């Protein structure tokens, strides 16, 4: 395991472009041993340490508390850049940004200020246990405290997180409750059972919540035990869906970049062609394939950036966002996600056509890109995203807010 703590950062970053440069530096460090770390599958403590030391974990934090003060457009691009070097760590960072922002989405102004100050100053790394395909956590009201109990089959971040966002339903009601709690306590048991095809270093295994206690004052968005709803509350899903989109785009770019380097340096021209070339990069089918894949990737990235602009517009007036503004953003995000998945899987598959049989060697590691996109893109069925776009195009129908829309 590389000792990432030895990597030092000597320059301060303030602008969006500088943060993107920092993300690229992190990606280069991660890429150096990404394949080896994927094969071992060890808990990524050092990798999260790198994200902290580089400052990327505080990107969205308030400047007055030492954060980057950046917007979601920058955060999405940072996720994309980090995912070029390592898809697993890109996912961890993207989920961290979403859970860091949960207070902004749900909490009272006082809670937002308190959470963001402490999270930024102490460089919290966020995880979450809120998978809605499982039974909800049961939340019991015990006077001044809430007690969370239950099990979630996925908990991205788990042991490498400092805090975990819990979501459950208040017993005897239909009221959802979110709270941010310490990850390392006896009442939270991470089961270390994440053993999947790809995204192997995301610590996404199951978790058991055995009576986690939180004061009512930590119930996000509640005042005197009553929730204060806003349309903005429902942006949690579009935000994370666009994290997914940028994750896939970063992994796809990593595949294309790695394959291109291999083709330039190691792929041999086909000696039995009608028009034999001196190098592989002179072969027409190689140029045609890279041109096709690069064009598709640029198009998918442009659509993702368009979606981010819609989120940014909403973030300028979170308390007055309308259902239509929210719905139209969700539709464009759905379109961007499906293009990112289709393009990413195509790139991660077709790069083998232009690298050659020897590129399938385990030491090369080109398999990691397809495995990572294929694994995470099954998070929720892409067919439903296509149908959401279709209903909007045909019927001007906006998607109803759900835990997956």
UniProtKB/TrEMBL annotation:
The keyword Transmembrane helix does not apply. Pfam families: Acyl-CoA_dh_2, Acyl-CoA_dh_N. GO terms for molecular function: 3-methylbutanoyl-CoA dehydrogenase activity; flavin adenine dinucleotide binding. GO terms for biological process: L-leucine catabolic process. InterPro entries: Acyl-CoA_DH_C, Acyl-CoA_Oxase/DH_mid-dom_sf, AcylCo_DH-like_C, AcylCoA_DH/ox_N, AcylCoA_DH/ox_N_sf, AcylCoA_DH/oxidase_NM_dom_sf. The keyword S-adenosyl-L-methionine does not apply. Keywords: Flavoprotein, Oxidoreductase. Residues 243-379 form the Acyl-CoA dehydrogenase C-terminal domain. Residues 23-111 form the Acyl-CoA dehydrogenase/oxidase N-terminal domain. This is Acyl-CoA dehydrogenase.
């Amino acid at each position: 395991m590389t000792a990432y703590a030895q990597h030092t950062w000597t320059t301060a970053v303030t602008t969006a472009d500088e943060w993107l440069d920092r993300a690229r530096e992190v990606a280069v460090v991660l890429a150096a041993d990404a394949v080896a770390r994927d094969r071992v599958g060890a808990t990524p403590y050092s990798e999260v340490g790198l994200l902290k030391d580089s400052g990327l974990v505080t990107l969205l934090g308030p400047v007055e508390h030492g954060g980057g003060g950046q917007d979601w457009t920058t955060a999405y691009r940072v996720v994309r850049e980090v995912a070029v070097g390592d898809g697993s760590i890109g996912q961890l960072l993207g989920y961290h940004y979403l859970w860091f922002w949960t207070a902004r989405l749900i909490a009272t102004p006082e809670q937002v200020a308190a959470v963001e100050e402490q999270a930024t100053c102490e460089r919290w790394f966020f995880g979450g246990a809120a998978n809605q395909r499982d039974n909800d956590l049961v939340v019991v009201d015990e006077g001044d405290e809430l007690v969370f109990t239950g099990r979630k089959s996925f908990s991205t971040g788990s042991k490498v997180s400092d805090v975990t966002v819990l979501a459950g339903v208040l017993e005897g009601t239909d009221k959802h409750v979110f709270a941010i709690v310490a990850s390392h306590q006896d009442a939270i048991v991470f089961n270390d059972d994440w053993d999947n095809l790809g995204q192997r270093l995301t610590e996404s295994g199951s978790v058991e919540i055995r009576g986690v206690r939180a004061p009512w004052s930590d119930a996000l968005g509640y005042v005197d035990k009553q929730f204060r709803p806003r349309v903005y509350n429902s942006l949690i899903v579009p935000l994370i869906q666009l994290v997914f989109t940028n994750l896939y785009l970063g992994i796809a770019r990593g595949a294309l970049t790695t394959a291109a380097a291999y083709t330039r340096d190691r792929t041999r021209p086909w000696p039995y062609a009608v028009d034999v070339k001196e190098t592989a990069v002179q072969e027409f089918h190689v140029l045609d394939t890279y041109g096709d894949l690069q064009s598709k990737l640029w198009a998918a990235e442009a659509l993702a950036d368009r979606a981010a602009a819609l989120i940014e517009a909403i973030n300028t007036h979170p308390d007055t966002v309308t259902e239509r503004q929210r719905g139209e953003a969700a539709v464009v995000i759905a379109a961007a996600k499906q293009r990112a998945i289709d393009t990413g899987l195509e790139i991660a598959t077709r790069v083998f056509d232009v690298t050659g049989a020897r590129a399938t060697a385990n030491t090369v590691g080109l398999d990691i890109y397809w495995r990572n996109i294929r694994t995470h893109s099954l998070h929720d069925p892409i067919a439903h995203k296509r149908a959401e776009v279709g209903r909007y195009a045909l019927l001007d129908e906006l998607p109803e807010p759900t835990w997956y829309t």
